[in-house]
Amino acid sequence: MDALASLGRYAVALPTAPYLHLLNGDVDVRTLASPPADAWATDAQGRATGLVHFYAPIKPEWESALAAAGVRFLLYVPDDALLVQGPPAALAALRGLPYVDWVGPYEASWKMPASLANATGVVDVRALLVPGEPPNALVAWLARAGVPARWAGPATPGILGAFGTGDFRWVRARVPASLIPALAVLPEVQFLDPVLPLQPLNYAADWVLQTNVSGAYRYWAADLNGTGQVIGLADTGLDYDNPQFRLRPSQVTSGDLYNTTDATRRKVVRYLDMGVLTGQLTWPGGGGAWDPYSMMDCGGGHGTAVASTLAGNAYGISPDLNNGNALNAQIYMEDVGGLAAGDTCTNGGETLIYVPEDYADLFGPPGLVYNDPVAPVRIQSDSWGAPGDAYDLQARMVDAFIWAHPDFTVFFAAGNEGPSPGTVNTPGTAKDVVTVGGACNPDGASQCFGTQNDLASFSSQGPTQDGRLKPDLVTVADGFSATSSGNPLDFPNYPGNCILPGDHAWAGTSFSTPAAAAAAAIIRQYFTQGWYPSRTPVAADAFDPSAALMRAMLLASGQQLTGTGTTASTWPNNQQGFGRVLLSSVLPLPGDPFDTQVVDNAAGLVTGQASTYTFHVAAGAASARFVLAWTDYPGTLGASKALVNDLDLQVTAPDGTVYRGNNFGPASLGASVSGATFDTTNPEEAVLLKSPLPGDWKVQVIGANVPVGPQPFALVATGGLDPAYGRVVLDRPSYAPGDTVHITVYDSNAAAVPVQVTSGLEPVGETVGLTQAAPGAAWTGSIPLAFAQPAADGVVE
Known about the structure:
Blueprint: H1 2-6, E1 19-22, E2 25-28, E3 48-54, H2 60-68, E4 72-77, E5 81-86, H3 88-93, E6 100-105, H4 114-117, E7 122-129, H5 136-144, E8 158-165, E9 168-176, H6 180-185, E10 189-194, E11 199-200, H7 206-210, H8 218-221, E12 230-235, E13 268-273, H9 274-277, H10 302-311, E14 330-335, H11 360-363, E15 379-382, E16 384-387, H12 393-404, E17 409-413, E18 425-426, E19 434-439, E20 473-476, E21 478-481, E22 504-507, H13 509-528, H14 547-556, E23 595-605, E24 610-617, E25 623-629, E26 646-652, E27 658-660, E28 684-690, E29 695-705, E30 711-719, E31 727-730, E32 740-746, E33 754-757, E34 766-769, E35 771-772, E36 779-784
């Protein structure tokens, strides 16, 4: 390591390299036996499931060698191990590879949390299957073990069914605890996850989100208000004749709200009954319109209040003082609420009984929500969860959907179990979501008795069980929102005609979550209307941002809370994440003294690759922030670390000082410190600077360990950056013959941008004349590559 350091290389010892980081404790592979091939348990096809541990971060060619040996890669297990499947003889033969230090079976004790191993009575469990295994054999095994085909009640055994698709499938069942050890032994079972019941997380100042200046609605004034953005909302229902949601003063809606999506509806483009969609309710009337009274949100309903905070807008219908944060965004309502047996609206109330078992059926059923061709949802706000700080199957379901749909940004409430650490709720423990905590409201009627600089005492805190930072950020978590009358067709007899005090006071991270989602709608509108990079809408610059870019933008906007409840020694931290969202710190408009510059890299990195960018900080800059985020591959249940693909952020100052992501100083400093080691736990990293040196700052995104790659990423730089300083961005870190190099140059005051592209074979290179679609737009161009004799032919050889 000293030799590497003398060459200017970063080097650090890896004392945990021989260890498997598993949920119930680390395991040193040097202490594990290596059984012969005939000792492995096999499935009906003669395949065994095992682990292969490598000496170092896994290279793509090593995975290829496993495939050539007839072994299938299933999942990554930290550190540097793969869960694999194949004939026992082929698995045992892998021990001869020079980069493999251990091969062995996947033990039953690794397949469940300790709490499940010690359970008694009847246990509600999700049995996650090994990727590629069909559920039929497991369902049949449960039946032979005496588990009924359906369950009759919450305390009786029964099989709910098989769920999921492709390589991500599970069986949910209530089983006698005595069956758990035998279930874990089955080779087709990858993990046993206890089911936690879901609950709404209820325990709204718009200007706090936009400018933090009372009455200053700067982005609304610029028509940045969520226009063109459709936000999915899964909750107890929506009283859609409320003035904030109805079509017009004299008309509730148009057409069949329940069976037809219509983007011309002012506010609610579709009302989706998830009980019907999942087959738990029968559609009445031979397929006719649903009786709206059966869809009602109970009086004072949670869903109506959350929707009000998100995008309620009564302008032109009623003088409501409590409109939502994304005024012009539209709502795609997913009604998951219902009355459990014996409950009424006044006794028990609605609960989340129709949340689908498979969250893919919530986020993207065929032709609906994400997949709706008329009004596709790209932002989802969910104000519910279950107590539990583990990365469980619920969290993995969410990560799996976002990995497969990388432009889908999901928000979950952190929970209301604060102020103790480790109280964040699942699915807010997912890696790829934005988990939202709560700050107080400066409205004078705050239920948490403070201002927007104070942390709400009820706001759940991190870290997650595997040590990741949560919540990601906070917004105002109490105030007033529209409330349901319990009847979607009783306007104008709505209490108070929907003006204060007819609205209802609420508190909880249920309400900070839609506020954060509303901020995301404004950020997304900024990109989809082409406000970046010119600060004015230029159609040629419009693009659909990735969920990673949306997350990085929100984190980069965070303002540190320093008031009541902020006791952590460093910042960002597990009380408030990156702080309170503030759009005016990250979305520049004409005349603003700061700039935001972004990279949304879809090509990604593999292990050992790096992408380098240069940002020019102007003299006298008060701050500079560099935030990296990526949508990580779904984690492996049973591992003690959820992170799969590890990217690193390294920022080098003009004087050579090196900062590495997520090394933060004391809370009183509110900034990063230099040196230290790379973060190997979180799927976002940041370097936050105050009074940065002027000049060129080099920012590197490094593929430190990418077992499932390539890994796309997003990078946001914001603060005292010089917008007139030209930046060249390539679409990929490396190219091969036959590829095309796509070039983007950001240079706001350039009259022309010729770019010289060279190679080792063609040192003179080719000149690419970039074009600009409109004044202020980015300059773009491309050139093909070939392996041939160099010539001045418009191709780089």
